[in-house]
Structure formats: C-alpha cells, structure tokens
Design brief:
CATH class of the domain at 79-175: Alpha Beta
Order of helices and strands: HHEHEEHEEHHH
Largest sheet: 3 strands, antiparallel
Structural class: alpha+beta
CATH architecture of the domain at 79-175: 2-Layer Sandwich
Radius of gyration: 27 Å
CATH topology of the domain at 79-175: Alpha-Beta Plaits
Strand content: 5-15%
Helix content: 10-25%
C-alpha cells in the first residue's frame, strides 16, 4: 500500500524547529497513552488492522504464548511419509539428497531381505540447521516419501546435535499408499500376504496436480528419538 509523500516547502512554524519538537512529543505521548489504556489488537497484519481513537497501535505477538497462524503453503519441518504397515515409502533412490542445494540430507541404502530389487533407507538423516527450506527434496522425490506439510518449524535447542533428525524422528504423520506403488504391483517377498492384501485394499489413485494435500500430522513430542549426541556433520548423500 503506497503512502503519499508531502514535498511542499517548510512553512515558518516548521522552520522554527521547536514547535515541531513539541508536536512530535505530543504525538509520541498520544501513542503511549493509547497503547497503555486500550486493548492490544491481535491482528498481525498492519495493513488490515483498524485504526483510530480507542484502539491500540501495538500489534506485537507475545511469542511463544501467542503464535501467528501459518499460511497454507508454509513449508514446515520434514517428515518421512509412512506406508500403512509403518515402513517408510522411501526407496533410497538418493534423488532428494542429489537435489538438495544445502547438502543437508544423508542416506544409506540397504536391500530389503528376500527382495534384491526393493531398497530402503537404513539411515536417513536431515540436518535442519543446514536446510534452507527450499522444498526441492519434496519435488524431486518420485515416491511421495518426503513432505514438508507438518506445519511446524524447527524447535529451539542449545546443541547442534538436537537439530539432526534421524529416520525414527522423521517417520510420522498420516500414511499413504498408492495403487501404482512397486511393492504392490509385483511380488514382494518382504511383505507377508495378509499385510500386502491390506496395503492393496487401502491404496488410492495418485492425486491430480493441484489436488488438496492431506491434513498435517499431529506434532510429535519434542523428546522423540533424535540423532546421537556429538555426531559428525552428515555428508552429502551418495548418488
């Protein structure tokens, strides 16, 4: 919203200097008394809040007691999307680690027992301090295995190791199964027949572009399992 600028030359009263000082002190006193005796406006949008007599100019959000709502497109903390059986959808293809410009994702792949084709992440670590919240890892993932729909930001900590999130801490939120998942379309010795039938029954079509996303997961406890204390900085994921 543009504001008009008054470029007229100074009149005699303004050139005398001291009357303008008294006028400025009066304006400052008015703001002080209005903020002291009238209720604070909780609306953080300074352009939309009402103004005038009887309204406080103070719109400071008293964080952490008060928190401004995040917009729908907010990129929050990462999460590994689980399948219905609790395993991660990740197939350890390293595409998220290769696309990450901050090199904050580290993955170690392993073969699923009895299935030399299917891979899974033995180690999946994200250094949230190095993350630049670009969302390229989400865009690069071919299996919808990593999302940033938690609606949370990284919790404060006094140690760097607390910001290194491992697979146990990242694997949370609503599960997702698609009809074209490879472990449902071919023989998968690693999945028993009964759980595989349940996975197939719960699978759904791949959503169209622009479809509404799933609701954000319930925030996990702050004391969830994290990375080992004092561990080394994770290197870039191998391709």
């Amino acid at each position: 919203m543009p504001y008009p600028i008054d470029n007229r030359p100074l009149d005699l009263r303004e050139r005398m200097y001291f009357p303008e000082i008294i006028r400025g002190i009066g304006a400052l006193t008015g703001h002080f008394l209005r903020n002291l005796f009238f209720s604070r406006d909780p609306n953080p949008d300074i352009l939309a809040r009402p103004r005038g007599f009887g309204r406080s100019d103070n719109v400071t959000v008293q964080y952490p007691e008060e928190k401004a709502p995040y917009p729908p497109g907010y990129r929050g903390l990462h999460r590994l999307v689980p399948r219905e059986d609790g395993r991660p959808r990740c197939v350890a293809c390293y595409m998220c680690a290769a696309a990450c410009p901050a090199q904050c994702i580290y993955i170690e792949a392993g073969e699923v027992e009895g299935d030399p084709i299917e891979k899974y992440p033995v180690v999946f670590v994200i250094d949230e301090l190095r993350c630049v919240v670009c969302g390229l890892c989400v865009e690069a993932c071919p299996k919808d295995a990593i999302r940033m729909d938690t609606g949370e930001h990284a919790p404060p900590s006094t140690e760097r190791a607390a910001q290194i999130w491992d697979k146990a801490r990242l694997l949370r939120g609503p599960s997702v199964n698609y009809q074209y998942d490879p472990w449902l379309r071919r023989a998968a010795p690693s999945i028993p027949p009964a759980p595989r039938a349940a996975l197939t029954a719960s699978a759904r079509p791949v959503p169209a572009v622009g479809a509404p996303a799933a609701p954000p997961p319930t925030p996990s406890p702050r004391g969830a399992a994290g990375a080992p204390r004092g561990g080394p900085r994770p290197p870039r994921g191998r391709r």
